[in-house]
Amino acid sequence: MANAKKKSNAVVKLDTEFTGLQQMTSDKVMYAIQSNLEKESITPFDLVKLSVPPGGITSWQFPDDESESGFKSVDVIEGVLLDYKAVKAYWEHSFDEGGGGTPPDCSSNDNIHGIGTIGGDPPGSLCDHCAMNQFGSAGEGRKGKACKEMRLLFLLPKKSVTPLVIGLPPTSLKGFRQYLMRLSSGEKPCAYSEVVTKFKLRREDKPMPHGIVVPSRGANLSDTELIAIERYRSAFASMWESVTIDDMADGEG
Length: 253
Known about the structure:
This protein has five helices and nine strands, in the order H-H-E-E-E-E-H-E-E-E-H-E-E-H. It is α+β, with helices and mostly antiparallel strands.
């Protein structure tokens, strides 16, 4: 009887490579985060944040406490895409003019209302009416917008118990949409949270050297992993809206 009771109370671990999907892991992580940050807004700096490196570099600069530089170069990032959100950001000064590494002068975390005073519009004004959100406002004869439409991707890597945030610049949005369309079509359509997604970087030299994020489909999740990932997504769902673009100190892309 004692052995049977001991067996019934044992924690059964999920057969998966994803540390964050192990039985009880997400509950423990969420309890710690909610207890420690209950009265704080979650920003990308509270999670691991990755942006496209400048100058066309084709490796991700991943934080690494054991490295002297504090970073290690990673060619591919892979994990389960939990969710993503559309945001906007405007830097009055370009990356070359010193705008990189600073919070945006105006931003929108719902992709609808702007928070800033650019162009004389009061905070909370509709982005659709802003002069910086019109085609041709990028200046120097360019057809693009001065205000950058971006995406924040929330990804669960295999060896992490918490998600990381990947910031997609405007130049990578087309490829990301095409990837989502590929997942939605074909012989076996699926949701983005049902597969492993791999993120690589491709160099483009025009109009100036920059990196393009290239997502691709990896392995399908098992039936038990699918159940666990939905549980994990539900545990973290309330955090996504609190994550903001303001601390994404990136003026390039």
